């Protein structure tokens, strides 16, 4: 009976994922190079205007003689300061005053801004984003203000317990590629940066030809196209962005490293691997491997180390997807006298099982069900659809992945999972990072 229920649930979920999630969209380019994606959904009187820029933490500012990290994240904040037509501080007042919400975020590969409004405020959303792109005010007052904002964010997020783990991973896993630097940057770089350097960075990366505009929700397509032209045709094309990042030498012997955190009392073990970037089939397989190992309390590592053997407070496997190199990482915190080496040995034991034998058919089907569920949830809101459309265009180069990516996961076989685990997750291909409490004399 249980097997029948499991099969029925899988069938129903597959039907839902196949039929309910088709997202229709239209694409076109303005003469200045701005790529536009429209998605009409008139089921609710809501519209989202969003812009994703092809600039992230990996894009260093300053000069070769004085490189500046953290500029993209800094601009995430700075471009809310105001424009020639929006007084300082008014940007973030206008939106809620008109019934809207907004946010922005930056990764190593892109920066994303969005506003969600009642659909009768579409023109306002387009005006705000065009002002940000056309003529933002970049002056010393704004730079000094946002410098303090970024420092406070660093104190709250990066200086929290275990908050420097991502930074430590970058420093030890990458030697040449700018992924080695933290997305938020080094505060001394921001302190030393000049206004001219910030202005030059904006001119380089924030042109319309280096961005995608997504408008989704309760729209009239013809009217929306006209409004987009009215507000964005005036923006002049920027220079073409050319990147030539150095390649990393493959890891062929285990690298051992240590990092220290004054805000923790219990150490952690982190094992990290350089893996393929966005959109590669192996990256999709690694997503499934991470879910198999630690996707929920019934997953292999949680059940073994936390639930049954009670050796760890936490045990995770994550595939952090990025453009040039992704990061696959194991993370675990011990309980009591359990050593970091013991945790790593236990993790390696489960990886070896994946490398030497196929996962069960039941676990394989469970994985597919999990990804179908994630697929449904990711596009369950207009905001989710808009971000997916922008992401698939800018980072994957195929907007229609919003409809067909789930078919990639469905097509991944147990044999592929075994082969990819063998290919990328051997101890000689990783950095073993001991993340330790920092003592006063260190």
CATH names the topology of the largest domain as Cytochrome Bc1 Complex, Chain A, domain 1
The parts where pLDDT drops under 50 for at least 5 residues are 1-20
SSE ordering = HEEEEEHHEEHHHHHEHEEHHEEHHHHHE
CATH architecture grouping of the largest domain? 2-Layer Sandwich
Average pLDDT taken over every residue: 93
Give the strand line-up of the largest sheet.
1-2-8-3-7-6
Q: Number of folding domains?
A: 2
- The shape, in one word, is globular
What is the end-to-end distance? Answer: 60 Å
Q: Give me the count of strands.
A: 13
What share of residues are in beta strands? 15-25%
Quickly give the structural class.
Answer: alpha+beta
Question: Topology of this structure?
Answer:
Blueprint (H helix, E strand, L loop, with lengths): L1 H18 L6 E4 L5 E6 L5 E8 L7 E2 L4 E2 L2 H8 L12 H7 L3 E6 L4 E8 L3 H13 L5 H19 L6 H9 L13 H6 L2 H11 L5 E7 L3 H12 L22 E7 L6 E8 L5 H14 L5 H9 L3 E9 L5 E9 L5 H17 L4 H18 L3 H15 L4 H11 L2 H11 L5 E8 L5
Parallel strand pairs: 2-8, 9-13
Antiparallel strand pairs: 1-2, 3-7, 3-8, 4-5, 6-7, 10-12, 10-13, 11-12
Structure, explained:
The chain is of the alpha+beta class and 442 residues long. It is built from 16 helices and 13 strands. Mean pLDDT is 93; it is low at 1-20.
Provide tags for this entry.
alpha+beta, disordered N terminus, 45% helix, Cytochrome Bc1 Complex, Chain A, domain 1, six-stranded mixed β-sheet, globular
Summarize the structure.
The protein has 16 helices and 13 strands. By secondary structure, it is α+β, with helices and mostly antiparallel strands. It has 2 domains: 24-232, Cytochrome Bc1 Complex, Chain A, domain 1; 255-437, Metalloenzyme, LuxS/M16 peptidase-like (Cytochrome Bc1 Complex, Chain A, domain 1, 2-Layer Sandwich), CATH 3.30.830.10.
